[in-house]
Fold this sequence. Notes:
By secondary structure, this protein is of the alpha+beta class. It has helices spanning 10-19, 23-26, 57-61; strands spanning 2-3, 32-36, 43-47, 67-68.
Amino acid sequence: LRIKPDLMKVPESISMQIYAAPEQRFCPAGVYEYVDDETSGEKKLVINAQNCVHCKCCSIKMPSEYIDWTVPEGGGGPSYQVM
């Protein structure tokens, strides 16, 4: 999970300002979180990729689709035992 290089300003300028950061609410694993930037005092997006459950919700619902979601390498996704 990473922000597309040409859309680096979208989280703070569009997602937070216009839509009140919906990625904090729709992500079932809490991958996206806005924290206070110590230098500027503004909110900054932090991506906790280790929490991702690979639901791809972010690739569908993000404003301007600014997240570059790729399949984990080496089968690093969740291992469901009951399926």
